[in-house]
TrEMBL record:
Biological classification of the source: Bacteria, Candidatus Vogeliibacteriota
Native source species: Candidatus Vogelbacteria bacterium RIFOXYB1_FULL_42_16
EC number assigned by the record: 6.1.1.2
Descriptive protein name: Tryptophan--tRNA ligase
Binding site for ATP: K13, P14, T15, G21, N22, G149, Q150, D151, V188, K195, M196, S197, K198, S199
InterPro entries attached to this UniProt entry: aa-tRNA-synth_I_CS (IPR001412), aa-tRNA-synth_Ic (IPR002305), Rossmann-like_a/b/a_fold (IPR014729), Trp-tRNA-ligase (IPR002306), Trp-tRNA-ligase_bac-type (IPR024109), Trp-tRNA_synthetase (IPR050203)
Length: 344
């Protein structure tokens, strides 16, 4: 594929240990696309995470961990700019400007806010404002493509609406970003058969130890068919995971054996454990290596922040001029020469 002259941007919330659902549903797809775009901006959404993590040590550790996770999975700092959102102040500045042109009833329609209010009556202002900070993240870099999960689609629509509103008020400034909805057709099931999710406690961690893999796979819920009975692969949670970890030939053989009868769930789980270990062990080892040198990871983040800040500062300068928060005045000095006085 030839590289598109386009900008891809995505934010990842640092929220603890990723699981294999996060990997196949989001992380892998972001990493796989890093060769397709001219500029890839991948940032750790720590300002967004502050809405839920209010502990400095935890927030910093989670931010470092997610950087290590992505590097271990193959994110290449030569191809992607990896940085922390809070290292680029223009994200917050632009969010404030958007706050001033957006109405409360408009933001009250956001699904995430509605969900939060049904669960908790004391929603923070930050949670309410979450979509406008995300709009600022996206629009600040003239982003073309935003890979996100289905649950974030509305937030990209809010970014588009906000761009239109700003452009209408202050003149053409922002590009319209397009969401790239990650292929979540395959929702990875957890060990209980529900969607794998941190909130359901049914996960298999992506960087799990061999022991953790064995324990979790052995807990996968099945029906009570005997090994001899034919089984429908589409109804088996073990099989859904085979689809992610088995080679095509092995998967075909497993399918035949399921349909003909003759494979028990115990054997199926043992095959899955072996394949998962084969896949996870090298990633885990790479992660351990990278984690040994946190200073190097911080250096990658620092360089990423510098690159991102350079892009962001240019754009926020233009935005401030358009809104009247910055100005340039040409005056004549006593010598009669024209000089430019600026307020940034
Ligand atoms: P969790 O539900 O574990 O808290 P998040 O909501 O933080 O996960 O999801 C982060 C990303 O991982 C999102 O893009 C989401 O679509 C994807 N994701 C999470 N769980 C799964 C799953 N079980 N299958 C596929 N994708 C998933
Ligand atoms: N809100 C996203 C999530 O919860 C994370 C995020 C923050 C993001 N800013 C972004 C994603 C900008 C894409 C673009 O997953």
């Amino acid at each position: 594929m030839t590289k598109e002259q386009k900008i891809l941007l995505t934010g990842v919330k640092p929220t603890g240990r990723p699981h294999i659902g996060n990997y196949f549903g989001a992380m892998k797809q972001v990493i796989d696309r890093q060769n397709d775009f001219e500029t890839n901006l991948i940032f750790i959404a720590d300002l967004h995470a502050l809405t839920t993590t209010q502990n400095a040590t935890e927030l910093n550790q989670d931010a470092l961990d997610i950087a290590i996770d992505y590097l271990a999975l193959g994110l290449d700092p030569a191809k992607a700019v990896l940085f922390r959102q809070s290292s680029v102040p223009a994200h917050s500045e632009l969010c404030w400007i958007f706050n001033c042109i957006t109405t409360v009833p408009y933001l009250q329609r956001a699904h995430a806010y509605k969900d939060a209010t049904t669960k908790n009556h004391e929603v923070s202002v930050g949670t309410f404002d979450y979509p406008l900070l995300m709009a600022a993240d996206i629009l600040l870099y003239d982003t073309d493509v935003v890979p996100v999960g289905q649950d974030q689609k509305q937030h990209v629509e809010i970014a588009r609406d906000t761009a239109e509103k700003f452009n209408r008020l202050f003149g053409e400034t922002f590009k319209m970003p397009e969401p790239l909805i990650l292929d979540s057709v395959k929702t990875v099931p957890g060990i209980d058969g529900q969607k794998m999710s941190k909130s359901y406690g049914n996960t298999i961690p992506l960087f799990a130890t061999d022991e953790e893999i064995k324990t979790q796979v052995m807990k996968i819920v099945t029906d009570s068919k005997t090994p001899e009975e034919p089984k429908d692969p589409a109804k088996c949670h073990i099989f859904a995971l085979h689809e992610l970890f088995a080679s095509p030939e092995e998967l075909a053989t497993l399918r035949q054996r399921y349909e003909a009868g003759g494979i028990g769930y115990k054997e199926s789980k043992e095959i899955l454990i072996a394949n998962m270990i084969k896949f996870i062990a090298p990633l885990r080892e790479r992660r351990v290596e990278i984690a040994k040198d946190p200073a190097k990871v911080l250096e990658i983040l620092k360089q990423g922040s510098e690159q991102a800040r350079e892009l962001a500062e240019k754009k926020i300068g233009e935005i401030k001029m358009k809104t009247g928060l910055a100005c340039e005045i040409r005056i004549s000095n006593q010598m009669g020469d024209e000089v430019i006085v600026t307020k940034k």
